[in-house]
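As a representative case, the lines below give one protein's residues and fold tokens.
***
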Amino acid sequence: MTTHAQYTVDPASASQSCRLWSARVDDLDRHLSANTWAQAAITVALIAYPIARIVLPTLFHGIVPDVVRTVCNLI
């Protein structure tokens, strides 16, 4: 069996696919150390912080009209 073949699932068997991925996550949980999980969490935080501080406000200012922003600032 090739490495790709173990992830190929019949499209009609969604429950089988869920069990497959659940087993993979359980394996990760058992085999990764707390240090590895901490490093992953720090990496995610370092990536998410600039997105939350730069990208989201830019999208907010692009989507929300000036009138709504003015009212929110007055409140």
In short: The chain has a mean pLDDT of 79. The CA atoms of residues 28 and 65 lie 45 Å apart. Residues 1-31 form one domain. Helices lie at 14-31, 34-63, 66-74.
